[in-house]
Structures are given as structure tokens and as C-alpha cells.
């Protein structure tokens, strides 16, 4: 607490001393100056010394960036010399006026000239008060055309991020995203969409999110835009799965047809093998019988022949029935193959229709993109015109300020001349009075001498 009190006492004593003895004061009229990129600017600095009888002083201008000071120009009054830093040679000059004012002229301003500028006056034996003053210089630059990019895979159900960034702009430009449908109709962003520092994040994208996305980068000098065409397609893995399913169905149906055909073929061979005419056997014992039962044997033979004939007829009928069944089976297989072919053709046609629809969407998006680009180009031309008008206004304002400063300097010079004339007039009056007094004294002396001469005579 004691140290704090002593500190306040010290500040009070310094302020009291300055109020009685007039400390040096350095000032800059404005806390901040603004200039358009590529233009020129003049920074004024005025100082008032504590004592009017100072012998010399040193005045310097510095640029302060990231807490590091770099000297721009220095004036030495005793040598009447101005030193310009090599970094600023060719684009900087310093004018020292008779009214204790220093004007720093800077030309061809760039983004790198955004910084604090400090004016300091050093007078030997006069270091109290405010020996320096600081101002900030803001170089105004319209945003450069931003660069728009897509980060991520543009396929169904993926997450992507749209980025937008201008390489140049002062003050720092602010990006803003807008969304348009394929018909170029403004629309809100889908749910869960986030936007931060020019990054637009889209989640679980689908075909409905296809369209145009326009980013506008803006500061108070102007704006610039870029746009993206977003076309969301099904993923490659989904198309492969569909093709695999179709191939598996076709292969299964073909295998089933082959199995049915083989079963019918085996059944047909088995029925043809049973009871054919070529299998009838005749034995000599059937015709010759030592016991004399030839008639009975002939009767039996005839019965067997008749039975064989009946079997052959039945086999023929079975053969016809089998042929009919085979024809029916083959017809069924053909119908199933035809149905499978129809399904495959329908799937292929549906795929072609989907591809055609996607192609139409891409064509619509492309045509709308051309329209948007033409509109954006027109807007850019208008913005460039407005920026030019702003720059002209700034230049005119700067010239008016310079004229005002010149008038002020002339008025100060005229006041100084008037003061000097008044002093000279006073001196001349004093001299004339002295001459009159001397002349009167001489006259009185002559009269006195004449009187003395008369008295002597």
C-alpha cells in the first residue's frame, strides 16, 4: 500500500512540474488513418518544446509491427539532414515545417503497411511530458476472389465440407454461404448443417442436396464470390452389389434349368430300357418237347407273343406320354429362362433410366451454373465500379485534407510575418523617439552655448 501511495505521489509531482514548466508535447491529430491499396497518404506530427530557446532536436518516424520498431525516417536539426531507411527509399519523404510540424509522405501502399506508426521528438534536456505519439494506418483492400473447394466423397450418405477463403482483403473479409436448387431457386440448408469461418459442413448427403452453393466474401470495401456445383451420385459399392445380385440370380436359374433337363433325360432312358422287343428270348425247348406237349407249348408261346405285343403297345404309349412330359419340362425351362431374361432386361432398363435421369440433372446443373456465373460476373463488375468510386472519394478527401493543412501552414506563416512586422515597427518607433530626443538635446545645447556666448560678450 505504501509503494502504491508513493507511486501516486511521484505521478502528482511530475504533473505539477509539467504544469509549471511546460513539458514537451508530441501529438498526431487522428488515432487511425485509412488509405486505399496502391494510393498515397501523409501522416502529420506536431510537437511543442518546453523551452523556446532549444538549440537542436531529433525527430524520427517509426513503424511498429509485432512489438518491433523499425525506423522509417530521421531528421537532425543541427545538420538540417533527413535520413530515409533503405527499406523505404523511393516511396517515402519527410517534410519539416517552420511551425514545428513533420509530415511523413508514404506512396504505393500495400497490405504489408498495415501497422502502428510512431513519431518521436528528442530534445536534449527536455525529456518530460509526451515525447512521442502513435497512430494506426489501415490499408483498405477489397476481398480477392475466394477459392471454393469440396472436402470429402460426394456420394450418398457421406459427410462433406465446402470451404471458402479469400487470400487478400483488409479489413478481414467475412465469408457467407447460400444454397440454390438445380432450378436455381434459393433454399435453406439441410438440418444439422454447420457453418464456421467459411467452412460449410453437410452431413448424410443425398440426391436432394444436389445444386449450387455460392460463397460471398465481404468487407466494407467490397465483395467477391465463388460457387460450387454439387452433384450427389450413388456410391460405386452399391452398383457393384446390384450387379452381383443380378449375376447370382441368372446363374441360379441356369443351374436349375440344367438340373431339371438332366433329371428328365435320366428318366427317359430308364423307361426305354424296360420291356423292349429286342429283349424277347426264344429257346429250342419252347418248340420241341419230348413228352409231346407241343400244342400246349405253342399256345403258351402265342400267349407270350401276345403279351409282348401288348407290352410294346403300352411302352409306345408311355413313350408318347414321356415325350409330352419332356416337352412340357423343356417349355417350362424356356418360360423360366424367358422370365429371367425379362427381369434382367427390366433391371437394365431401370439402370439406364436412372443414368438418364442423373445425366439430365447434371445438364440442368451445368446450365444453371452458367447462368449463376454470368450473374456473379455482372455483380463483380458493379462492385468494382463501386470500389472505384470509394477510392476516388478517399483520394478527394485526402486532397482536401492536404489543402486544409497547407492553408493552416500559410496562416501560421502570415501570423509569424505579422508579428515580425509589428516588432520591426516598434523598433523603428523607438529609434525615431531616440533621434528626436537627441535632436532636442542638441538644440538645447546650441541655445545654451549661444546664451553663454552672449553673457561672455
UniProtKB/TrEMBL annotation:
Top-level taxon in the UniProt lineage: Eukaryota
Record keyword Chaperone present: no
Signal sequence, renumbered to the chain: 1-21
Record keywords: Membrane, Signal, Transmembrane, Transmembrane helix
InterPro entries: A33, Ig-like_dom, Ig-like_dom_sf, Ig-like_fold, Ig_sub, Ig_V-set
Any single Gene Ontology cellular-component annotation: plasma membrane
Transmembrane region(s): 241-264, 374-396, 433-456
Location of the Ig-like domain: 24-121, 131-231
Short name of one Pfam family: V-set
Identification of the protein by name: Ig-like domain-containing protein
Amino acid at each position: 500500500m505504501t509503494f502504491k501511495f508513493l507511486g501516486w505521489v511521484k505521478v502528482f509531482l511530475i504533473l505539477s512540474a509539467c504544469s509549471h514548466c511546460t513539458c514537451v508535447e508530441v501529438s498526431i491529430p487522428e488515432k487511425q488513418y485509412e488509405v486505399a491499396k496502391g494510393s498515397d497518404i501523409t501522416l502529420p506530427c506536431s510537437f511543442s518544446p518546453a523551452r523556446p530557446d532549444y538549440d537542436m532536436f531529433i525527430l524520427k518516424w517509426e513503424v511498429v509491427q509485432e512489438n518491433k520498431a523499425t525506423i522509417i525516417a530521421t531528421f537532425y536539426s543541427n545538420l538540417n539532414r533527413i535520413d530515409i531507411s533503405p527499406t523505404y527509399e523511393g516511396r517515402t519523404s519527410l517534410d519539416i515545417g517552420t511551425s514545428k510540424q513533420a509530415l511523413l509522405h508514404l506512396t504505393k501502399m500495400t497490405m504489408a503497411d498495415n501497422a502502428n506508426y510512431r513519431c518521436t521528438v528528442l530534445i536534449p534536456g527536455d525529456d518530460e511530458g509526451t515525447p512521442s505519439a502513435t497512430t494506426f494506418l489501415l490499408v483498405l483492400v477489397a476481398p480477392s476472389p475466394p477459392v471454393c473447394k469440396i472436402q470429402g466423397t460426394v456420394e450418398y450418405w457421406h459427410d462433406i465440407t465446402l470451404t471458402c477463403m479469400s487470400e487478400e482483403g483488409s479489413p478481414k473479409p467475412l465469408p457467407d454461404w447460400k444454397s440454390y436448387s438445380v432450378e436455381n431457386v434459393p433454399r435453406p440448408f439441410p438440418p444439422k448443417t454447420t457453418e464456421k469461418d467459411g467452412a460449410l459442413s453437410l452431413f448424410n448427403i443425398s440426391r436432394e442436396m444436389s445444386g449450387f452453393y455460392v460463397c460471398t466474401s465481404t468487407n466494407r470495401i467490397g465483395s467477391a464470390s465463388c460457387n460450387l456445383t454439387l452433384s450427389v451420385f450413388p456410391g460405386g459399392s452399391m452398383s457393384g452389389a446390384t450387379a452381383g445380385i443380378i449375376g447370382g440370380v441368372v446363374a441360379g436359374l441356369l443351374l436349375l434349368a440344367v438340373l431339371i433337363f438332366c433329371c428328365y433325360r435320366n428318366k427317359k432312358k430308364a423307361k426305354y430300357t424296360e420291356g423292349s422287343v429286342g429283349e424277347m428270348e426264344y429257346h429250342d425247348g419252347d418248340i420241341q418237347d419230348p413228352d409231346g406237349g407241343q400244342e400246349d407249348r405253342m399256345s403258351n408261346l402265342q400267349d407270350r407273343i401276345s403279351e409282348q405285343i401288348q407290352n410294346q403297345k403300352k411302352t409306345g404309349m408311355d413313350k408318347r406320354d414321356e415325350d409330352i412330359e419332356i416337352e412340357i419340362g423343356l417349355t417350362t425351362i424356356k418360360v423360366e429362362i424367358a422370365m429371367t431374361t425379362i427381369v434382367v432386361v427390366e433391371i437394365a432398363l431401370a439402370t439406364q433410366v436412372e443414368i438418364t435421369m442423373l445425366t439430365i440433372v447434371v445438364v440442368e446443373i451445368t446450365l444453371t451454373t452458367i447462368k449463376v456465373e454470368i450473374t456473379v460476373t455482372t455483380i463483380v463488375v458493379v462492385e468494382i465500379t463501386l470500389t472505384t468510386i470509394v477510392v476516388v472519394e478517399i483520394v478527394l478527401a485526402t486532397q482536401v485534407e492536404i489543402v486544409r493543412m497547407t492553408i493552416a501552414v500559410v496562416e501560421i506563416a502570415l501570423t509569424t510575418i505579422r508579428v515580425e512586422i509589428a516588432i520591426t515597427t516598434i523598433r523603428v518607433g523607438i529609434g525615431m523617439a531616440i533621434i528626436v530626443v537627441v535632436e532636442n538635446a542638441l538644440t538645447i545645447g546650441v541655445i545654451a552655448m549661444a546664451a553663454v556666448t552672449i553673457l561672455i560678450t
